[in-house]
Design brief:
The complex is a heterotrimer of chains A (about 300), B (about 300) and C (about 375).
Chain A lengths: L1 H34 L21 H7 L1 H10 L12 H33 L8 H8 L2 H14 L6 H25 L3 H9 L4 H12 L1 H17 L2 H5 L8 H7 L1 E2 L3 E2 L1 H21 L4 H5 L7
Antiparallel strand pairs in A: 1-2
Helix pairs in contact in A: 1-13, 2-3, 2-13, 4-7, 4-10, 4-12, 5-7, 7-10, 8-9, 10-13, 12-13
Chain B lengths: L7 H12 L5 H27 L21 H8 L1 H30 L8 H8 L7 H11 L5 H10 L15 H25 L3 H9 L4 H29 L3 H6 L11 H10 L4 H30 L1
Helix pairs in contact in B: 2-13, 4-8, 4-10, 6-8, 8-10, 9-10, 10-13, 12-13
Chain C lengths: L2 E12 L2 E12 L3 E5 L6 H9 L6 E6 L2 E2 L10 E4 L11 H11 L4 H14 L15 H13 L5 E5 L7 H18 L2 E6 L2 H7 L2 E6 L2 E6 L1 H6 L4 H6 L6 E10 L2 E6 L3 E7 L5 E7 L4 E4 L7 E10 L4 E7 L2 E7 L9 E6 L5 E3 L6 E2 L2 E4 L7
Parallel strand pairs in C: 3-8, 3-9, 6-7, 7-8
Antiparallel strand pairs in C: 1-2, 1-4, 4-5, 9-10, 11-12, 11-14, 12-13, 13-22, 14-20, 15-19, 16-17, 16-19, 17-18, 20-21
The chains are: A mainly alpha (about 300), B mainly alpha (about 300), C alpha+beta (about 375).
């Protein structure tokens, strides 16, 4: 008798899981689907789930505005949206900032983590100050940062944004890499040093290769954070530098409001690298998001 | 065991003595990180401290360091500013609702994943997909979903039998809902992952022992599993709580604080004060207040956590 | 005496591997029965099936005359102590002990009384307020034990309870456990890989290997009359010497010859002529400094020092034969003479590894008495 109830319970449970999966996937599905919809289907009633006449026009507007214009001229009812620059600039800007900020964050973070773990630099609580950085609401820091940056002429520059991004991802770098270093016994470096290696050498040639999976995961994690960042990009730039997160906000026309399809196309493309990287580091996500406090 | 092995500090004492220049080696290693953080955090904090006691606006034409000092006026005004206090309360409301929802949903879902079944891995991957989407794009997706002619309204129309073209984002009473739903949708998977990890790391034999002693599943959950999960839950709530408090992207994209200021959170309030009204001194004071409160709460809460971490 | 636990042809397969095959045995009321065997022999699987944590593929588990195969664990009347004790680390020791009673709806007042009584019995009174996670291993073991004893299970199942403890603690705990068991008349089913432990504590021992039961009997029976080679080799420390021999039939008797020694014994038994094996315990290997009839000369290769006695490893053809002696008897490299006292030796049939019962196995029938 108990087994029959267990069977029903099982079906209920599986149904709940499927429901959760569908809820998780639906908004993304909608985004992707909308990116292929022609203009008249964006706000159609009843809503169009999957376009019956899918188009690449939205993607053209994003990546090749000239081609989009030509297409719109030939195809009646197609939207034509004049954007000064194609999204390639946004991807380029985002890539430059994200890659550089990630590199700096990892390098600085690894050196600091090594120092903290092996030398206990700064005492027991030193590393916690880096956690404080994450507690600061970025908006509170933006105004004085603008002042500070304008002094150094860093507003709307790559170095300025890279600096800001690096600083705000350092807590993750330091704490994540720290937890990886702690898993490698320091006797290994000690053994290498007995053979004549200097301490840092021992770390770089013995420990680092052992944790390179973890360091790579941290790098991808930090990259995701940088790529998805919005607030600093919004406030510390004045139009010269455009990140992918800002570019989406550009697809607004005075007459038609938000250009759903184009924004969906831009959103779909810009979110793809993040999703890919996210799944690559799936094993390490928990460790990253809890600053190394929880490990699988 | 640790007493007998060679300690790092002992071995490199020798090399440190050799290489002793102006800065100890280990300090030099943390300098890049430390300086970066100081530049972006410490110096701005000092600037905030200064600005918060002035009434500086860039439109005044004078440089910021020559701004007119107004002492504690900014703070007094803030505490009487209905818009500010409303923003604070609203943000707290959002934090509490979102965290509660995320926690309950994540916990219920995680409990369904305790056993193995063929497509379990796929299910986990699908469920955590939302947290890997760029937040701005997710917010835009929700903007489209909650449009007056969007799928959400369509679904409701089907249920209630008549056309339902409700403008969620234009309604001061309801606009907060899409924002919170976007936040919950995006971050419940994170809570789910954390709680699931905690559940997987539970000592299985304690659960089995309770089972053999005759405890029901509910009793096992509340008396054995939950206490063992407490550290994980606290970390998850703390981390999500702080992030939710800072909420900005969904608010900006979905409503920009509107209609009016009915969905204005603290971050949105400060953004508008800075970039629409240019009241930098005022914003600095607000920022300082928020900083002090957030940091002290975190320090107070984190202390028992730190001991546990050791 | 009543059979408290009966296993009938119990079987469990993991894929194609037979973890437990056709296991049948009985544990009597109040008996301390040990299940011994090497790692992977199926003893923990058997325990899990009796407890209700694993479903059997075949056979019956009968507790107190009731077939419990389809009953969930809590209805079987078993108490289980895990190898890692599984003390509820987030609860106090008092709460740990009271847990089983609470589940059974015992009133708070009654719970407190029972907990107090049992804590006194097991020396846990000073630990009652401590948190489960703060205890050391031997404290945890006692708490785990008390936790199951308090609900007075029909059958107490113990899974290698001593393997996590220091050797010094084990000796005293063995005695304590046995005392408690006798005082309460508790039927105990004890799984271990440590044969010495089983020998010292049990009323009866069941030896398992490869999922099958090899022999069940009292410690004396298992030690002195093993039924096959594996049991003889597994039980007893230092392990028995297994030496090749030749068996000749001589009219109604058989004669056992060992290469190098010549004839070592005659007797009567049912076994074919040819190459077989004999098992001689190290205590039955006689070592002397002078030559005696039946002894051969050999060299001491090395010595194991066990304090009260030494085990000499003596050269014999390509192997080493273990012999126990008093300390200081010989040094490494010494030339000594070794011979066998065949009174307690075993004849092992080649191929089947069965131990063949032999009547009057001795060099001279007269020496038997």
């Amino acid at each position: 008798m108990t087994s029959r109830f267990a069977f029903i319970g099982l079906w209920l449970r599986r149904a709940a899981v499927i429901a959760a999966m569908l809820i998780g996937l639906f908004p993304i599905f909608w985004l992707v689907s909308t990116s292929f919809k022609p203009y008249d289907e964006w706000q159609h009633w009843p809503p169009v789930w999957v376009s019956s006449s899918p188009t690449l026009q939205n993607y053209r507007i994003v990546f090749a505005p000239q081609a989009a214009q030509t297409f719109a001229a030939k195809q009646k009812g197609s939207i034509d949206y004049k954007v000064s620059a194609s999204a390639w600039k946004a991807f380029r800007d985002s890539a430059i900032i994200s890659v550089c900020a990630t590199l700096l964050s990892i390098i600085f973070g690894t050196l600091a983590a090594y120092s903290i773990v092996r030398y206990r630099t700064g005492g027991r609580n030193y590393a916690f100050q880096f956690l404080m950085v994450r507690m600061f609401p970025p908006i509170a820091v933006v105004v004085p940062m603008l002042v500070f940056f304008s002094l150094l002429r860093l507003i709307d520059t790559f170095p300025g944004l890279i600096l800001a991004y690096t600083a705000f991802t350092l807590p993750f770098s330091i704490w994540m890499i720290r937890s990886f270093i702690e898993e490698v016994p320091e006797e290994l470096e000690g053994a290498a040093m007995i053979y004549g290696m200097r301490p840092l050498q021992a770390f770089l040639r013995v420990t680092l290769p052992l944790i390179r999976g973890g360091v790579l995961a941290t790098a991808l994690f930090v990259f995701i954070l940088n790529w998805s960042e919005f607030l600093f990009a919004l406030t510390l730039t004045t139009g010269g530098i455009v990140t992918v997160t800002l570019q989406v906000a550009n697809y607004v026309s005075a007459s038609s409001g938000k250009l759903y399809g184009v924004q969906a196309a831009m959103g779909t493309i810009s979110t793809i690298p993040v999703i890919i990287f996210g799944y690559l580091i799936q094993r390490h996500l928990v460790r990253g998001l809890t600053f190394g406090a929880i490990k699988r | 065991m640790a007493d007998e092995t060679v300690k790092m500090e002992d071995v490199d004492m020798i090399s440190r003595r050799r290489a002793k220049r102006w800065i100890p080696f280990n300090v030099a290693l943390v300098l890049p990180a430390q300086l970066t953080v100081m530049a972006v955090v410490l110096i701005p904090t000092l600037i905030i401290l200064w600005l918060s006691i002035t009434d500086w606006q860039p439109t005044q034409g004078i440089p910021w360091f020559k701004a007119y000092v107004v002492g504690l006026d900014n703070f007094r005004e803030l505490l009487h500013d209905h818009r500010f206090t409303a923003a604070v309360l609203r943000t707290l409301f959002v934090v509490i609702v979102c965290m509660a929802a995320e926690f309950v949903l994540a916990m219920s879902l995680a409990l369904l994943f305790l056993d193995e079944w063929p497509w379990r891995k796929i299910a986990v991957s699908a469920i955590i997909l939302p947290m890997m989407v760029v937040p701005v794009d997710a917010a835009n997706a929700f903007f489209m979903l909650f449009g007056d002619r969007g799928p959400i309204n369509y679904a409701i129309s089907l249920i209630i039998g008549r056309s339902f073209e409700f403008g969620w984002l234009e309604n001061p009473n309801w606009a907060l809902l899409p924002i919170m739903l976007a936040e919950i949708w995006q971050w419940t998977p994170l809570m789910f992952l954390l709680i699931l990890t905690g559940l997987m790391n539970l000592p299985e034999n304690q659960v089995r022992a309770a089972y053999v002693l005759g405890a029901s599943r509910t009793k096992i959950f509340f008396k054995i599993m939950l206490p063992l999960l407490t550290p994980v839950i606290i970390i998850a709530l703390l981390i999500r709580g702080i992030e939710t408090f800072k909420i900005f992207d969904p608010v900006y994209i979905l409503t920009h604080g509107g209609p009016g200021s009915s969905t204005e959170t603290i971050s949105m309030f400060m953004y508008d004060s800075a970039f629409e009204f240019f009241r930098m001194g005022y914003v600095a004071a607000a920022g300082l207040l928020v900083l002090v409160v957030v940091v002290s709460i975190c320090v107070a809460l984190a202390r028992p956590l730190r001991e546990h971490h050791r | 005496m009543e059979a408290k636990l009966e296993l009938k042809e119990l079987t469990k397969r993991f894929g194609t591997v037979g973890a437990v095959s056709g296991l049948s045995l009985i544990a009597r009321e109040g008996e301390f029965l040990s299940l011994v065997g090497p790692s992977g022999c199926g003893k923990s699987t058997t325990l899990a099936m009796i407890a209700g944590l694993l479903q059997a593929d075949g056979g019956d588990i009968v507790i107190d005359k009731r077939v419990v195969n389809d009953l969930p664990a809590q209805q079987r009347g078993v108490g289980l102590v895990f190898q890692d004790y599984a003390v509820f680390t987030s609860l106090s020791v008092e709460a740990n002990l009271a847990f089983g009673l609470e589940v059974r709806g015992v009133s708070r007042v009654a719970r407190k009384k029972l907990v107090k009584a049992l804590a006194e019995q097991l020396n846990l009174t000073s630990l009652l307020k401590r948190r489960g996670g703060s205890l050391n291993m031997s404290e945890m073991q006692r708490v785990a034990l008390a936790r199951v004893l308090i609900v007075e299970p029909k059958l107490l199942l113990l899974d290698e309870p001593m393997s996590n403890l220091d050797a010094s603690v084990r000796a005293s705990l063995r005695g304590e456990l046995r005392q408690i068991q006798r005082a309460r008349g508790q039927t105990v089913f004890y799984v271990t890989h440590d044969q010495a432990e089983a020998l010292s504590m049990s009323d009866r021992i069941a030896v398992m290997r490869g999922g099958k039961l090899l022999q069940i009997g009292t410690p004396e029976e298992i030690y002195q009359r093993p039924s096959n080679r594996f049991v003889a080799e597994f039980i007893g420390d230092p392990p028995i010497n297994v030496i090749a021999c030749d068996v000749r039939r001589d009219g109604g008797s058989i004669a056992v010859d060992v290469p190098g020694f010549g004839n070592v014994a005659v007797g009567r038994g049912i076994i074919d002529e040819g190459r077989h094996l004999i098992g001689v315990r190290p205590h039955d290997v006689i070592v002397g400094h002078a030559s005696t009839p039946g002894a051969i000369q050999t060299t001491v290769r090395f010595i194991e020092n066990f304090g009260a006695e030494h085990v000499l490893h003596l050269e014999y053809l390509n192997e080493l034969i273990r012999a126990t002696t008093v300390p200081g008897f010989a040094h490494v490299g010494a030339n000594v003479y070794m011979g066998f006292d065949m009174t307690h030796a075993h004849l092992i049939e080649a191929g089947t590894d069965r131990i063949v019962p032999i009547d009057a196995l001795s060099p001279n029938a007269k020496d038997r008495h």
